[in-house]
Amino acid sequence: MKNLSIENITKACRGTFHGDESILSQEVSGVVIDSRKVQPGYLFVAIDGERVNAHKFIPDTVKAGAMCVV
Description:
Layout: H1 6-12, E1 30-32, E2 42-44, H2 58-63, E3 68-69
Parallel strand pairs: 1-2, 2-3
């Protein structure tokens, strides 16, 4: 994944970054929607599905090393 920094992700999503701004230039090492697959440095995308609302797993992904959550 080339140039997938947190700053670029934030801009692409037209979002607002909340957190330690010193990590904005860091690149994520992977992107997942399954909280069980998060590894250190990954971006976790929390999706509200028909059966599961992944937002409830955000604390678990942070503990697993997620660098960023959308």
